[in-house]
C-alpha cells in the first residue's frame, strides 16, 4: 500500500473511532449516569483515543 493511501485510511479510521468513542462517552455522561457516573468511562475513553492516535502515528506517519 502506498504511503498516501495508508495515511488517508489510517487517519479516517482513527477519526471515526475517536468520534464514536467520544460520542459514547458524552452520551453516558449526560444521560442517567450523570457526570460523576460517566467520569470513569470518560477517562478510559480519553486513554483509548490517545492510544489509537499514537498507533496511527507509529504505523502510518513515522518513517521507519
Task: Describe this protein's structure.
This protein is an all-alpha fold and 64 residues long. The chain has one domain. The protein contains two helices and no strands. The longest helix has 28 residues. The radius of gyration is 15 Å and the shape is elongated.
Largest sheet: none
Low-confidence stretches: none
What pattern of helices and strands is seen along the backbone? Answer: HH
Number of strands: 0
Mean pLDDT over all positions: 90
Classify the secondary structure makeup into a structural class. mainly alpha
The number of helical segments is 2
Form type: elongated
Beta-strand percentage range: under 5%
N-to-C terminal Cα separation, in Å? Answer: 15 Å
The domain tally reads 1
Taking Cα atoms only, what radius of gyration do you get, to the nearest Å? 15 Å
In percent, how helical is the residue content?
Answer: over 70%
Briefly say what this structure is.
The chain contains 2 helices and no strands. It has 64 residues and is an all-alpha fold. It has one domain.
Question: Top keywords for this entry?
Answer:
2 helices; mainly alpha; 64 residues; 88% helix
Q: Topology, pairings included?
A:
Layout lengths: L2 H28 L3 H28 L3
Helix pairs in contact: 1-2
Amino acid at each position: 500500500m502506498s504511503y498516501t493511501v495508508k495515511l488517508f485510511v489510517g487517519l479516517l479510521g482513527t477519526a471515526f473511532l475517536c468520534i464514536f468513542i467520544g460520542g459514547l462517552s458524552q452520551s453516558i455522561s449526560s444521560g442517567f449516569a450523570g457526570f460523576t457516573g460517566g467520569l470513569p468511562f470518560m477517562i478510559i475513553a480519553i486513554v483509548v483515543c490517545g492510544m489509537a492516535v499514537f498507533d496511527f502515528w507509529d504505523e502510518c506517519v513515522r518513517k521507519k
